[in-house]
Amino acid sequence: MLDAVEAEAHSFAFSPRRCCASTCDGTALSPPGPDGAPVRLHPFPRDDATALRWRSILELTPVPLEEIRRRGLKVCSRHFDPADYTQSRPAPVAVRGGNSVTSRLKQGAIPLLELVLPRLTRIIVNN
Questions:
Q1: Domain presence at residue 15
Q2: 13 CB contacts (<8 Å, ≥6 apart)?
Q3: How many CB atoms lie within 10 A of CB 73?
Q4: pLDDT one-digit tens code per residue, 8-56
Q5: What is the SS3 string spanning 30-94?
Q6: Dihedrals phi, psi of 27, to nearest 5 degrees
Q7: DSSP secondary-structure letter at 5?
Q8: Rg from Cα positions in the chain
Q9: CA-based angle 95:97:99, to the nearest 5?
Q10: Which member of 5, 11, 19, 80 lies 3.0 to 4.6 Å from 26 by CB, making a disulfide possible if both were Cys?
């Protein structure tokens, strides 16, 4: 049986199409950041230790990790430092018309930027 805090956490629906940080409205359709990079959504890591740190920092501790993954919760790139990404140059991409530099979130990266704690608001999004 869930206690009152857990019941409150489960009563809110989050969307896999937007950032799950409490005061963030980031989506894949958000305008690019000041550096011109598009906003990207990152799923919770497969590594449980890192995923548990994300859950704690984002104040989602009442929500089981399995539930976070099942719902496909994501954190947007606004919450990561540029140093949290690796740069790589893939093979030429015909769709984009040439070489493009891609970046990947480094293993063990933690979302620490632009977080407002404690959780003051909750975004309610229907499943």
A1: yes
A2: 124, 125, 126, 127
A3: 23
A4: 444 445 788 899 988 888 898 998 877 788 899 999 999 999 999 999 9
A5: CCCCCCCCCCCEEECCCCHHHHHHHHHHCCCCCCCHHHHHHHCCEEEHHHCCHHHEEEECCCCEC
A6: -135, 170
A7: H
A8: 16
A9: 105
A10: 19
Tell me if 42 is assigned to some domain.
yes
Q: Give the residue carrying structure tokens 């990207």.
A: 40
**88 is a domain residue:** no
The two tokens of residue 69 are 């993954």
CA neighbor of 56 nearest in space, from 21, 87, 105, 81: 21
- Would 112 be classed as within a structural domain? no
pTM value > 0.90? no
43 Cβ partners below 8 Å, 6+ apart? 69, 72, 73, 74
Amino acid at 92: P
